[in-house]
């Protein structure tokens, strides 16, 4: 299968889904990573999931990932976390999304929470992806969350290109420690001392090294352009053009 190219709607905050779809298609994307958030058209509890699924599918796109904000390691009781996970899994099923992204988000014990939704994941035909982020920014740390489940086909890791590198883990090491638990790759660039997003190739993240270790792997490569958090950065089209050049250079 090789790499499949997607873009996250985080780079188009507040945009109607139809506009995000047009942007993805115009830049040669095969998929859309959809931010599931109350501020956006797509969110848990929405009543138009079937229409959204049709809009995306009719454009020839797949939903590469539903980017949720549940925190599997959050402190506190398990119940609210499990409920949020189930809501995201239900939405992913309605949208026909192949994966759900979640965050670590603390030092709590995630394994019972994830195990509680394992049957839901399998029934929905979707995969839970824990991002290398916040409390668990490296591949090694993220693997410690998912490995005890022992089901990489259902629970794996989303490798955000920026965070492991900024925390001292090389791309070679990240790929090595993730092994079969690598489920998704987010293409990002920035400088070591400043996390402000830069178009791929303009920053210091060793994206060439990332490409080299990813070549034998098949899966989604998604541009995450964090314009929702950094509104002054350039429009997503600028980053997409740079991402397309990176893909043209490195895609197997």
From TrEMBL:
Gene3D superfamilies under this entry? Answer: Divalent-metal-dependent TIM barrel enzymes (3.20.20.150)
- The highest taxon in the source lineage is Bacteria
Q: Name one Pfam family in it.
A: AP_endonuc_2
The signal peptide stretch is: none
Cross-referenced InterPro entries: IolE/XylAMocC-like (IPR050312), Xyl_isomerase-like_sf (IPR036237), Xyl_isomerase-like_TIM-brl (IPR013022)
Q: Which keywords label this protein?
A: Isomerase
Q: Which GO terms describe its molecular function?
A: isomerase activity
Q: Where is the Xylose isomerase-like TIM barrel domain?
A: 22-247
The answer, when asked if Isomerase is one of the entry's keywords, is yes
Q: Know the name of this protein? A: Sugar phosphate isomerase/epimerase
């Amino acid at each position: 299968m090789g790499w499949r190219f997607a873009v996250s709607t985080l780079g188009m905050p507040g945009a109607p889904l139809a506009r995000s779809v047009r942007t993805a298609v115009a830049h040669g994307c095969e998929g859309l990573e959809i931010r599931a958030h109350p501020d956006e058209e797509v969110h848990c509890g929405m009543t138009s999931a079937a229409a959204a699924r049709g809009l995306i599918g009719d454009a020839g796109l797949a939903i590469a990932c539903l980017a949720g904000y549940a925190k599997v390691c959050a402190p506190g009781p398990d119940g609210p976390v499990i409920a949020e996970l189930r809501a995201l899994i239900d939405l992913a099923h309605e949208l026909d999304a192949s994966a759900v992204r979640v965050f670590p988000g603390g030092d709590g014990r995630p394994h019972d929470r994830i195990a509680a939704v394992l049957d839901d994941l399998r029934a929905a035909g979707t995969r839970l992806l824990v991002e290398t982020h916040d409390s668990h920014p490296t591949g090694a740390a993220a693997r410690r969350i998912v490995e005890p489940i022992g089901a990489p086909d259902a629970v794996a890791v989303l490798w955000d290109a920026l965070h492991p590198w900024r925390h001292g883990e090389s791309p070679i090491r990240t790929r090595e420690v993730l092994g079969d638990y690598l489920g998704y790759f987010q293409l990002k660039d920035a400088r070591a001392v400043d996390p402000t997003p830069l178009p791929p190739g303009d920053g210091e993240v060793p994206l060439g090294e990332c490409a080299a270790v990813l070549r034998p792997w098949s899966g989604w490569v998604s541009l995450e352009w964090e314009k929702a958090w950094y509104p002054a950065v350039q429009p997503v089209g600028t980053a997409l053009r740079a991402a397309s050049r990176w893909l043209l250079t490195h895609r197997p």
